[in-house]
Each structure stands twice: as structure tokens, then as C-alpha cells.
Amino acid sequence: MPKLSIITITYQAEAYIERTLKSVFEQGCAEQIDYVVVDGASKDRTVEIIEANKSQIQSFISEKDKGIYDAMNKGMKLAKGDYILFLNAGDTFASATTLKFLLDELAKNPDVLYGEAVFVNNDGQSLGLRSEVTPHRLPDHLSWQDFKYGMLVCHQAFIAKRSIAPLFDLQYKLSSDIDWEIQVLKKSSNIVKSGAPICNYLMGGASVQNLQRSW
């Protein structure tokens, strides 16, 4: 069984999807990962780009969905790894060796491994760590009660044991990832902070644009 399922959700993402695919492939460690790509029936070149890389993707579907959290649920249902990480179109691993580092951490069998996200612009330039450029400080010892202060951990920097991860609640149109992280943390006893950043988070995604509505 693979150690980690990486799930990428896409829709009309021809400008961004290639950087995400490349970031996953350049990590190596192919025998330890299960790569799942879920597309929402894109009409641009997204599917064509994914198809061209299909030999390195374990599961790929392209079909209409009820929004991003429905697509994420489809990805979870296809996942086979012990752990799951969502790395959506436009997002990348923090460095070329991040996955090897994460797999070493996951070998210690935590329930959750969480870490920093680096905010980047469309050119891939760093805008700083999320905990530096937002009011959300990343605690050294995370618990679900910390979420009274908001979304403390980017879901692209939150790795959960698949056996304790529920499906996303579709009643929350924009904030289901906060609810999901809380539910996972409530079931976790061994919660570990990564010693290195996990992802580069592309500014301008759906959650960022809808943040005020979300709160």
C-alpha cells in the first residue's frame, strides 16, 4: 500500500496544472505515493495536459461535480494511501526534496502532520510564510480548539491519516476545509508539526477570493 495519496483538484486550470504535476513528479518516491487527479469537466486544455502525463498518475477522472468539496470527496474515495494530502491546481511542494522529508516524518506514524505554507505569486516568487503574512500564527502543538482563531493551517499543508479522515461536509460552500481539519484533529492523538514548509500556495484561489463570504 502506498504511504501517501496526493490529491489534486482541477477546473479550467490550464494555466496552473502543469506546475503542480511537475512538482509532484520531480519529487521522485513514486513507489510510495498514489497520485489522484479529479477534474470538474474542464472545457479548456486542462484534461489534455493531464492526459499527456497519465503514465505517472494512478487515478484520474474528469466529470461534473457539485463544487470543490464534492470533488475532494471523490478524490478521497479514490485514494489508496495510508495518508492524504490535497495539493490543488497551482499549488506545489515547497522544495524538490519536500516529499522525501514528509515520508520520513510519516514513517513515525502520526495521526496528523501539519506545517507551514509559503505564499507565492503567479510567477512562483515567495511572498512569505503564511504565518508571517496573515494573522494566523502556526502553533507548535496544534489542537482543534485552536481553530476558534480561524483557519490556522492551509489544507495543502495538512496531512491526515486516511482512516480517520471524514468526507467533506457539502453544506459549507466555502469553509468545509476548516470543519474537516477540526473533525480530523478531534480524532487524533499524535499530532506532529513538520520541521520544514510543506507547500507553496498560489495566491488567488477560490478560498482567498471568497474569504469574507466564507467567514
Assembly type of the chains comes to single chain
Q: Sketch the topology as an H/E string, one letter per element.
A: EHEHEHEEHEEEHEHEEHH
Identify the overall geometry: globular
Average pLDDT number: 87
Number of E-state strands? 11
Helix content: 25-40%
SS field, number of helical segments: 8
* Rg measurement, Å: 16 Å
The largest sheet, given as strand count, sense and whether it forms a barrel, is: 7 strands, mixed
Query: Regions with pLDDT < 50 over 5+ consecutive residues?
Result: 206-215
- Share of β-strand residues: 15-25%
The SS-based structural class is alpha/beta
* Spatial order of the strands forming the largest sheet: 3-2-1-4-9-6-10
How far apart, in Å, are the first and last alpha carbons? 38 Å
Explain how this protein is built.
β2, α2 (46-52) and β3 form a beta-alpha-beta unit. The longest helix has 11 residues, at 68-78. The protein has helices spanning 17-26, 46-52, 68-78, 98-106, 130-133, 176-186, 206-209, 211-214; strands at residues 4-10, 33-39, 59-62, 83-86, 92-93, 112-114, 117-120, 126-129, 158-161, 191-193, 199-202. The strands form 2 sheets. The protein has a 7-stranded mixed β-sheet with strand order 3-2-1-4-9-6-10, sandwiched between helices. A 4-stranded mixed β-sheet has the order 5-11-7-8. The chain is built from 8 helices and 11 strands. The model is unreliable at 206-215 (pLDDT under 50). Helix content is 28%, strand content 21%. It starts with a strand and ends with a helix.
